[in-house]
Automatic annotation (TrEMBL):
One of its GO terms (molecular function) is 1-(5-phosphoribosyl)-5-[(5-phosphoribosylamino)methylideneamino]imidazole-4-carboxamide isomerase activity. Belongs to the HisA/HisF family. The active site is at D10 (proton acceptor), D132 (proton donor). Keywords: Amino-acid biosynthesis, Cytoplasm, Histidine biosynthesis, Isomerase. Pathway: Amino-acid biosynthesis; L-histidine biosynthesis; L-histidine from 5-phospho-alpha-D-ribose 1-diphosphate: step 4/9. InterPro entries: Aldolase_TIM, His_biosynth, HisA/PriA, Isoase_HisA-like, RibuloseP-bd_barrel. This is 1-(5-phosphoribosyl)-5-[(5-phosphoribosylamino)methylideneamino] imidazole-4-carboxamide isomerase. The gene is hisA. It is found in: Cytoplasm. It comes from the Bacteria. GO terms for cellular component: cytoplasm. It is an enzyme of class 5 (isomerase). Its main location: cytoplasm. One of its GO terms (biological process) is L-histidine biosynthetic process.
Length: 257
């Protein structure tokens, strides 16, 4: 099974930041400029980048087009990006700036029919739906919106089924409680998603802290993992993660039937 690493750059006020559990009041800022971080990831062997406009995630109006274009031109990385995608004009502008995939989060929860139309119109490989979830006390997985600050009332299972039936290919799912916490990905959540919608290519996001977590998410059926705080804090290097992922893939190919 192919497996993709998505090093992440979250941008707020033009700076690389990480939030704890999506809380804008709990922000860590990093010294390097976003383009410099992207260039480093490219040198370390990344093929993809996950780029997020945190300012737009709350208020709309994706504004990272110039940065996206510079990353594509100077690094050659394939980019999936979002934050504040509210309409078809945003999708077209992001793709025109060089993105391979547009990540749609809040709108995918509030207006799934519109996003289903985009999957049909732009192609399933051009849209990544982000269904970021917080578990309720009764066990249900609910989907907040607007940078995880508003309760939408929507449930993961229902939207997951709707998008799977509509032909969605790429799903990014974050357990919000683990985002930025370095507590390990929620493997039970990903096994549940893969069992409910086996045709989706699922990206694990939130909590990845080491190479063992990457391997565990792969074993849980994920197609890839978004790597954020652990990389920025130097808990492991992207180059070693890329090497380990390639070794696992090569080992899988050489196993006897």
């Amino acid at each position: 099974m192919s497996y993709t690493l998505y090093p992440a750059i979250d941008v707020r006020d033009g700076r690389v930041v990480r939030l704890r559990q999506g809380d804008y009041a709990q922000e860590t800022r990093y010294a390097d400029e976003p383009l410099a971080v992207a260039s480093r990831y490219a040198r370390d062997g990344a093929d993809w980048l996950h780029l997020v406009d945190l300012d737009a995630a709350r208020g709309g109006g994706y504004a990272l087009g110039p940065l996206l274009a510079a990353i594509r031109e100077q690094t050659g990385l394939r980019v999936q990006t979002g934050g504040g995608v509210r309409g078809e004009g945003d999708v077209e502008a992001i793709l025109a700036a060089g993105a391979e995939r547009v990540v749609v989060g809040s709108l995918a929860v509030r207006e799934p029919r519109r996003v289903v139309d985009w999957i049909r119109d732009y192609g399933a490989d051009c849209i990544t739906v982000a269904l970021d979830a917080r578990q309720h006390a009764d066990g249900r997985w609910l989907l907040p919106t607007a940078g995880w600050t508003q309760d939408s009332g929507a449930e993961l299972n229902a939207l997951l089924a709707q998008y799977a039936d509509a032909g969605l290919c790429h799903l990014l799912c974050t357990d919000i409680a683990r985002d930025g916490m370095l507590s390990g990905p929620n493997l039970d959540l990903y096994r549940r998603i893969v069992a409910l919608a086996p045709g989706l290519r699922v990206q694990a996001s939130g909590g990845v802290r080491d190479l063992a977590d990457i391997a565990a998410s792969r074993d849980a059926g994920c197609e890839g993992a978004v790597l954020g705080k652990a990389l920025l804090d130097g808990r492991f290097g992207l180059a070693e993660a890329v090497a380990a992922t390639r070794a696992a893939r090569d080992d899988e190919r050489t196993r006897p039937c």
